[in-house]
Amino acid sequence: MTMAIVGGVSEDAQFVEQKLADGRSSWENSAVFGQSSVKEALYTVAEECRSPNWDGYGAVPVSEEAYRLAYRFLEALPLGYAMPTVGVEPDGQITFEWHRSARRTLSVSIDPEGRVHYSALLGARKEHGEEPFFRELPQRVGELIDSLGSP
Amino acid sequence: MARSVDRPIAPEERVARFVTVSRWVREDRTIRPDAFVPPPDLRLSVTRHDALSVEGLWSIGRAVVAQVARTRKAELSGRADRCVRDVLRFGLATEAAPVPGNPYHAEIVGWPAEKAAQKNIAQQLAAIAAFRPWTSS
Fold first, then answer.
1. pLDDT of amino acid A5
2. A101 pLDDT above the threshold of 90
């Protein structure tokens, strides 16, 4: 934990600094905890959908590569971003959803070849596209998450 | 007299997408678009309501889940009902595709090749689908 150097060494200054540090640590822990629970959900989904026909309609199993890329996508989300819920599509791709209402919703899926497919309903507007995913959150996806705000 | 399942699917007919994956239902009991994204062959399975009774429709759903239960723990969460006219609105089509055990089986076809475009249609279908939870009594 890094303390900001403010110059003042009075008891009051130290008290304020400690409170700021406590708040930041608490926020970081909360953000990390949020991501941990989503990672847990990701693992559960991948395990539940490892076998062929996991949906009764001939769904494709979730592959190791699909799981690994989905995990990396979660890690690429900056701390402080709203966390998604986890799902899965019949082609074996993991999905992350940020859902505020029927017309304010974003769904992102990552294919085993490292492409991010996203689709959003933003009121009267609709948007969808594809971006490559290496290690960083694709810019447009980040902008869409931001535009949806917190739940 | 021809069986109703042999007739072409009319726009005013209703079709059901059985929800066999609990994660397809959000906490607020609405359906995620994941349930409507087509598989790789771009043929999305549904069941025609047609002249089926409510129990007849649910028995088909239970049979679908019974298949899944052979390889993993599974249960029927419910079904998402949609009017065929709404499907047609997105440039898709619905084709009768009877299978052993389900003469009312149909498929939603005509999906775009681009995955993101499929997701967008699936989001819009999910937004207007009526979710009927399954409750055993």
1. 47
2. yes
CA B19 to chain centre: 8
Q: What stretch of H or E contains A118? A: strand A115-122
Rounded Cα distance between B67 and B6, Å, is 25
pTM of the model: 0.84
Of the candidates A44, A32, A46, the one whose C-alpha atom is nearest the C-alpha of residue A79 is: A32
Question: How many CA within 13 A on the CB side of residue B24?
Answer: 31
Q: Which residue range(s) make up the domain with B107? A: 4-132
- Please tell me the predicted confidence (pLDDT) of residue A105: 97
CA of B90 vs chain A CAs: smallest distance (Å)? 13
Beta-carbon separation of A88 and B34 below 8 A:
yes
Tokens of A124: 């009267």
In B, what residues contact A, Cβ < 8 A? Answer: 18, 20-21, 23-24, 26, 30, 32-34, 37-41, 45, 64-65, 67-68, 71-72, 74, 114-117, 119-120, 122-124, 127
CA–chain centroid gap for A118, Å, is 13
Number of compact structural domains in chain B: 1
Reported ipTM exceeds the 0.90 cut:
no
The answer to whether the CB atoms of B123 and A107 lie below 8 A apart is: yes
Per-residue pLDDT tens for B92-111?
Answer: 999 999 988 888 999 999 99
